[in-house]
Amino acid sequence: MQFEFINSRSAVAFVESPFSKNFHDRLSTTIEQNLTPKSIEESFPRTDWEFIVKNQSPECIEFRDWISNVFYEVMPVERLSGVPAWEASSYMGQIKLVKCWGSVYNKENYAENHNHLPFTHSFVYYLKVPEESSPLEMEGTTFFVRENLCIFFPAHINHSVPPNKSDGRVIIAGNFNWILS
User: What are the start-end ranges of the H helices in 77-164?
Assistant: First the structure.
C-alpha cells in the first residue's frame, strides 16, 4: 500500500490486488456482457451504477468483499479525507460500498473532469490496461495505471481520463458513503 498527497489535505491510496488474470478475464466478461447503451453525457459504455453491488456472480461477490476489506485497511478516514481521527473513528463501521459499476474504454473514449460528490470516498480498479491506455488525471497529477491496481481517493477530488488510444481498457469504479442508522 502506498499513499501520495495531491493537495495539502487529501491523500490517494494505491493498493495491488491478489486477483489472477483468469479472475480478471471472468470479471471483465461479466462487465462486457452487461453494458448499457452510452448516454449523451458519457463517451464510454458502462454497466448500471449498482451492477457490481447487486450482481451475485462469484466474481462480483469476491470483488465486493475484497474492495470493502481493503477500504477499511486503507483507512483511517483522516488519511484519505482530512477528517480528524477522534471524529472519524466512531463512524468507521458505517461507511459502506453503495455504488459500483464497470466501464470499458475503447479508442477515443474519455471521462471529463468530474468528482463523485455527495459520496465520501471513491475508487477505481484496473482489470485490463492495454498498451497506450490513458492515465488517470487528478487535480494536475497524472497517474499511469496498470492491471491489478486499485486507487482510493476522497470523492471530492476532481479527476478525468484523456481520450484513450487503445481498445479494451476495463475498469471498475465505485463509491463509499456513510450509512447512518
Answer: 77-81, 85-88
CB-based contacts of 140, cutoff 8 Å, min separation 6: 6
The pTM assigned to this predicted structure is 0.88
Going from N- to C-terminal start, the domains of the chain cover 2-178
Q: Which residues pair with 177 in a beta bridge?
A: 96
Domain 2-178 CATH class label:
mainly beta
Name the average pLDDT for the chain: 87
Q: Which residues of 98-136 are buried (b: 16+ CB within 10 A; e: fewer)?
A: bbbbbbbbeeebebeeebbeebbbbbbbbbbbeeebbeb
